[in-house]
Amino acid sequence: MATSTHSFSLPLRGMKSIRDIVLLRLTTGYILLIVSLIGFFGGDWDIQWHAVVGRDRTFTPPHIMILAAIGLGGLVALGSILIETSWARHNRELEQVSIDFLGFLQSSLGTYMVGFGAVTSAVAFPLDTYWHSLYGIDVSLWAPFHIMLSAGGLITLFGILYILLSAAHLAESQQQRWSSILAYSGLLLGLGELLSKLCTLAFPALSGQGTLHLAGGALMLFPFIMSALAAIACALAVRVLKWPGSATLTVGVFLLLYLVVSTFVPPAMVALVQAEHQQYLPRAAQIGSLIVPLLGQTPFLLLTGVAIDAAVWLARGRKWSRAATDRCIIAAAMLGMLVVTTITLITLSSGQASTQGPGKGLGIMLLLSFLLALPGGFIGSWLGLRIGTAIQKLQR
Asked: What is the pTM of this model?
């Protein structure tokens, strides 16, 4: 009888529990965050290189950083999937907190998203190289395969956010307070990176690419695009984070990344230009010391973060319904982004970046350009709230 009991206890000792899944997803999420930040800094460095030097060869240091992030992200995601699949085969309870894929893999939905994002970016990179070989230097971030690369990076980042959110949900169900705090802290860092990446996507709209030339004059789309993209991250933050001031905290992380990129890119550019004996393009004199990706970013986004958090505080204090709270958040995002984009355009047009800012003179079309921030803020905040609600309902 004793021998029989002993034989049954051995498999039980080797069984993994939900607490192990929490630890695995926390570890996976944080490793992927670090890897994503490597690609993030490499991407901003590469955008600056394209703008002031051009594109000379495939394996430049910024490209190596981007490729390393793509490859490492895919490998980490694959490793996490295989580990979780192995654990689920020995404990059917773990299948309840994971998602089946292809009939034999078990893992978090976010891990599959990271893998898909890595594949998307990996396919886009050689296609972008081929595009440049056909059409030469193209410094536009909105070039087809630059968009595909950005899309892969955003899919990966959303996957990381979901991995950490699923870890937070599972930690709360197991009363693991510190694991929950760690998961939400990683989530905050990821949201700040998301806001920065989305704002970077808006900066080409400051040039002619984001201008509609109509009979009555030029209509700038920058306020609409910037408002929509920034509002997505801020609204998403108040829905998935349970901390007070979550939108403001997200903008705070965004500004920290803004500071790090501002510190990192200029000396890296100078060192690389000297090491490779390159010359700056004529347009570099117009850009000056500005970092190109940061032209679409602004510290004034704190105003939007504070406005959204104030709306949440007001709604909670008055115990409004979810629908009423959402309307309040959307209104705050619209008004906040109207102020932010207006100040940003005025600031850029009066400084060194005037060549990439709004056209000269005031008029009806310029006023309409500013007012486009209202529908942009509406669409972005509505979408951010809907995405947040959807992923909050999923626990796996």
From this structure: 0.89
